[in-house]
Amino acid sequence: MTSKKIRQAAFWTLLAALGLASLAFTKPAGGDSFEIYLDNQLLMQQYLFRDAATKTVNLPTPGNNKSLIVKYSHCGVAGKNRSISLKDAHSLLLKKYSYADAVDPKKGMVIPIKDIPSGVQVQLFYQSKELPDGKTLVYLDMKNDPATRVKVK
Fold this sequence. Notes:
Order of helices and strands: HEEEEEEEEE
CATH topology: Immunoglobulin-like
Shape: elongated
Structural class: mainly beta
Radius of gyration: 22 Å
CATH class: Mainly Beta
CATH architecture: Sandwich
Largest sheet: 5 strands, mixed
CATH superfamily: Macroglobulin (MG2) domain
Strand order of the largest sheet: 3-9-8-5-6
């Protein structure tokens, strides 16, 4: 082989290696994420491409005027035909909330704390046109069990 061909082969090999190495340091493209607030205080944030486990959030006792606010983003885009359901431990529907389409994925979906049953663990279930089968985002615990508490950030 001539030295010119050796240099070309080395160049292309180096270029391919650098390209593959750069992929190792980037997060996957897209990915859904959500944030849950208690009024304006962030309780949790989860990226679904990275975090697989469904977490439990401890909530204050009902009867107050506080609200949960859920902000769900489909790869940076707000969902269409959005709904959030409260389900019991057997996935039976307790209450369903439907929300208007939003342009901004940061447009929150509000759930009054007083609507969440106390003394039991409830699933917060999200569904939209982009996620027709839906997903349990978090378990809401009104039992005040310190073992399941997620610290407020």
